[in-house]
Specification:
Elements: H1 2-12, H2 18-22, H3 25-50, H4 53-73, H5 81-104, H6 106-111, H7 113-120, H8 122-140, H9 146-175, H10 179-202, E1 206-208, E2 211-215, H11 216-238, H12 241-244, E3 248-250, E4 255-257, E5 269-272, H13 275-281, E6 285-288, H14 290-304, H15 306-319, H16 335-357, H17 362-370, H18 374-391, H19 393-400
Antiparallel strand pairs: 1-2, 3-4, 5-6
Length: 401
């Protein structure tokens, strides 16, 4: 025992640890958070490269939230609680991932007979799986724990709504092009870093009672820094097809590809500056990618509304008297502690794309037409021909040919 105490004392007094021990607690937290932030940014790019590891992140986030509920009520020995929680996670993931694969890779699914059958009956299979879990829950009810079991049933479903549904939005954003995934997530990371830095050096005025360390100075500094960062990152990424083109399956090469003719959103255009900016900069026009203008909306949301995801998580943790969701990352908490803002951001990006960006997709319509029977294709062809002739477009097209 004495040797262990001496070895600990010797370790603490070693030259390597002495500078850190002499450093004030505030600065020690700064260095720990800073080093681990760089490590997490590197890991973030690794996630982008590997792709499927995202599913592991979803499972980890789900596990952290479910564990909180289980740790609070584990003394009641609720039957099948953990088993049912993981089973419902499997069911919901099967439903959402199946919907995504069917929607994004329709031609590939139609070519393979097993996939075509699974796609055709996907929703029925998903419902049958969920119904099985529902019956298992009913059979697990114990007289003295009715209320608590229904409480945990709701806990599981709300967790699935928060984690899996938002992750489904992230994947859909990714299929619109890598830029719709990387820029929003990077803006949230940038805002978190810059708000911390501005708050660390200039913070004086508390922002919200739920998070006493958050300050108005950090909030405002993070806002402007994130907008500038978003514009710059968007400019760099908009010039690369790999980032702006959606993932598609090529029937000719029988491979997935990320290659397309960039839309107008990713082509440089001249914009006339307002008079007050013209007098300030001396420029009459500025050359930008239209996506850079959209990045201002993304950056603003990441800076203004994104932190409320963190405040929500803070209130949740305070309700259960815990500091972090887990201790996976020293100085930062669990994976869910890093994704609390990201999930809210993913939902906004998905809604933003659907409302202001996405239009009819001709290639997807053609893929669906080719999957029809020949008589159905001929019917659509004749209907389309009659429509174009009635509108006066078809003769003009024939003259050009």
């Amino acid at each position: 025992m004495e040797r262990q105490m001496e070895s600990r004392r010797g370790t603490q007094d070693s030259p390597r640890c002495r500078p850190l021990l002499m450093t004030p607690q505030r600065w020690r937290n700064w260095w720990v958070r800073g080093i681990l932030t760089l490590a997490m940014i590197s890991f973030f790019f690794l996630i982008i490269y590997l792709g499927p590891i995202v599913l592991m992140m979803i499972i980890k986030c789900f596990q952290e939230i479910i564990t909180i509920g289980y740790s609070v009520y584990h003394s009641y020995h609720l039957p099948w609680f953990r088993t049912l929680s993981w089973y419902f996670l499997l069911c919901v993931n099967y439903f959402f991932y199946g919907e995504t694969v069917t929607d994004c890779f329709f031609t590939l699914v139609q070519r393979e007979e097993p996939l075509r059958i699974l796609s055709k009956y996907h929703r029925f299979i998903s419902f049958a799986l969920y119904l099985t879990g529902f019956c298992m829950f009913v059979l697990s009810l114990v007289k003295k724990h009715y209320r608590l079991q229904f409480y945990m049933f709701g806990w599981t479903h709300v967790t699935l709504l928060i984690v899996v549904t938002q992750s489904h939005f992230i994947i859909h954003n990714l299929f619109e092009g890598m830029i719709w995934f990387i820029v929003p997530i990077s803006c949230v990371i940038c805002n978190d870093i810059m708000a911390y830095m501005f708050g660390f050096f200039f913070g004086r005025t508390p922002l919200i009672k739920l998070s006493p360390k958050k300050t108005w100075e950090g909030f405002i500094g993070g806002l402007f820094s994130t907008i500038v960062f978003g514009i710059m990152l968007s400019y760099v990424m908009s010039g690369w097809r790999y980032f702006v083109c959606p993932v598609e399956f090529n029937n000719d090469s029988n491979r997935f590809q990320v290659d397309c003719e960039p839309s107008e959103l990713f082509q440089l255009q001249d914009y006339t500056l307002p008079s007050f900016l013209e007098s300030f900069t001396g420029w009459t026009t500025v050359r930008l990618y239209p996506f850079q203008i959209h990045s201002i909306a993304l950056s603003s949301f990441a800076s203004i509304m994104g932190p409320f995801g963190g405040f929500f998580a803070s209130g949740f943790k305070r309700a259960f008297k815990i500091k972090d969701f887990a201790n996976t990352i020293p100085g930062h908490g669990g994976i869910m502690d890093r994704f609390d803002c990201q999930y809210l951001m993913a939902t906004f990006v998905n809604v933003y794309i659907a409302s202001f960006i996405r239009g009819p997709n001709p290639s997807k319509v053609i893929q669906q037409l080719l999957a029809l029977r020949i008589d159905q294709q001929l019917h659509i062809f004749n209907s389309l021909k009659a429509h174009l002739t009635e509108k006066g477009f078809l003769p003009a097209l024939e003259d050009l040919s």
